[in-house]
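haha ok so turns out i had the wrong file open the whole time. this is the CORRECT one, sorry everyone. sequence first:
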Amino acid sequence: MAFLNIAFQAEMSRFEDPEFDEVAKKNCNEEFETRAKAIGELRRMVRERGECNPRRLDDAYFLRFLRCRRFIPALAHKLMVRYEEFRSKYAYLYQCDPFALQKVKNVYAGILPENPDNGRVILMRFGRWDSDTIHIDDVVRTALLMDEVAATQPKLQILGVTIIVDLEGLSIRHVRHLSPTIANQIVSLMGVAFPLTFHGLHMVNYNWILNSFFYLFKQFIPKPVWKRIHFHGSDMDSLKKHVHEESLPPEYGGKCRYVISTEEWIRKIDEFKDDYLVSELRDLGFYVNEYKSIYDKLYSDSFNSEILSIS
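then structure:
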């Protein structure tokens, strides 16, 4: 539990850790000596081309986009344009209380700790989605929240993510909620329009329904992304050729001890959130209550308990 609390607190970190410098060179082609030049070039493109109006123009914000496009300003600029188009087109996805998304249970999980080759491994289990009680928009919003919080953290900007889509249990009752709009949103969130390094997408435990499920998605997947999509069926040995055993739970033939459900992750993010994260989420359009430190919360709870005992 101590490790997990430290890990969750790290989700709030904007600290540039020198420990990741070598990984940044490998994953992102990032060199500290030329970083300022690349940031300046991207900022110039934004101002001169006028294709997007980013909500921030500071160095740390531009770094998000440069890191997942191997520090090529032209590619980072294209990504920024796609990201801003997504935010504008689907602004309604942000109009919710992000911490109420704990109700979206069983669909997503994450593997801790991360590693330099796979980054953070994210599990998407759409067959476990209770489509009768949870609206598809909230399923998408949960992935959106995961992406936006991850994008604030330099460590995950560098390490990136690997996605495993487990389709066990997927049925017609799930697929009937999908539409081209939903498919476009989900593909965008898988790195196509978001500033996160995407190592690979691995499809497992699928059946004949995959054809109708994937048909909706493939029209939105750019050609360069196809080489990072892998189909394993139920062959977990095939999956382990791409993802470390230490980053896979036992159900996929792995040895990972820390598989964190997204509802638990959201609850902990709510617990450890700081002024910066609250400001970021609000700026994006999320509805977030006033921030209180964990110490304020403990004091408030204790005070309220005393009042109740007195009354």
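The beta strands are 108-112, 120-124, 161-166, 198-204, 229-233, 258-261.
again sry for the mixup
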